[in-house]
Amino acid sequence: MSIIEIKVPSPGESITHVELYKWLVADGAIVKKDTEIAELESEKATLTLVADEAGKVSLKAKEGDSLEVGAVACTIDTSVQPEVSTESKGEKQAATPIAEEKKAPEIKEVKTEISKAEIKPTPTEFDNVKITPLAKQIMEENDLSLEDVINGLRRLKRSDVEAALAGSSANAVSGLRKPANRDSKTDRMSSLRRKLSERLVSVKNETAMLTTFNEVNMKPIMDLRKKHQDKFVEKHGIKLGMMSFFLKACAIALQEFPSVNSMMEGENMTTYNYADISVAVSTPKGLMVPVIRNVESMGLAEIEKTIMEVADKARKGKLSIPEMTGGTFTVTNGGVFGSMMSTPIINPPQSAILGMHNILDRAVVIDGEIVVRPMMYVALSYDHRVIDGRESVGFLVRVKQLLENPTDMLFGKSDGEKELLEL
Description:
Elements: E1 3-7, E2 17-23, E3 30-31, E4 36-41, E5 46-50, E6 55-59, E7 66-68, E8 72-77, H1 98-101, H2 133-141, H3 146-153, H4 158-166, H5 168-176, H6 191-206, E9 209-217, H7 219-236, H8 243-256, E10 262-265, E11 268-271, E12 277-279, E13 281-283, E14 286-288, E15 291-292, H9 300-315, E16 329-333, E17 352-356, E18 359-366, E19 369-383, H10 389-404, H11 408-411, H12 417-420
Parallel strand pairs: 12-16, 16-17
Antiparallel strand pairs: 1-8, 2-4, 2-7, 3-6, 4-5, 6-8, 9-19, 10-11, 12-15, 13-14, 17-19, 18-19
Helix pairs in contact: 4-5, 8-9, 8-10
């Protein structure tokens, strides 16, 4: 018998413990080499535990346990190998994940019509009850009629009878009323969300945070995207979005207002000549902020591609510690969720964060006339200990100017559209 140990890897410097968030295989499962067997969470990132060799897994920890880096999470008995399937191309079978063990029985065929021969005859009062294909399949397997199911659910109440007497319109309204439900569920917060909570509270307590607002006419950018979108996709293989314009405008404005690109370190203040911009990404496990490095030297196409890559990795929990550290400024977009205005919280140890919001048609005055334009409110939250009011307001106004004049302001010439889009 050959037993190998699968140990907790180090997610990064200064991190000594991780939390075993979830096992992806059951105890005793037989796995292939390189199978993902567990998800681990540190205070900064999520990482995956992988089987070094094929064999039978023996779990040594429970979900929710705090494990030291280097601790044994499980062992693999390599003398037990996956069986060779005779039904599918002779390949070895991987272990069955926990999620698959609990799934509903496989449905071999979904039929759209219900025949009396397939389920027990039901009384005529149930003729109008509709049954989904999956429900029908389960009823057939368990030899249940519609009457059996309905009688097993609950007794008829007065409200049910009154709804039936009131007619189809009352039935429709009754369908919108859900039974009262006072259930609750308590889950332990992940280490990532606990750390995020601590950081957010510390920002409020330890910084002199203020927020300044402005609004941006998005019509020039929207017109530019509409005009060149097809050619941009054809050349670069990715759609031209809004975020790349904002990151590029912020990178230029950070060069002009360096205090916004600064951080306090004890009694010292460090100012950066480059723009490593963190982009807030909402994921099922909490907020992630991967960093786009040297945005000041990137074109829009490269920015768009990098954003797509890091956002996809964030949602899959594949971001590494280096990919989320070292940012000098942050951009967050609450507009994708419909937010009209907000005061974003600074991402420490940074000193400022720009908040984007949704775009709505509003009546504005341009050249003395009231016109309708797609407008966006933007917000800059900043640490007043590092950034003065003049710099914060000046920075946001400069970002507004760059966005409203994406070619003239960025390149100083009216024919700069193709150069901006690298066409």
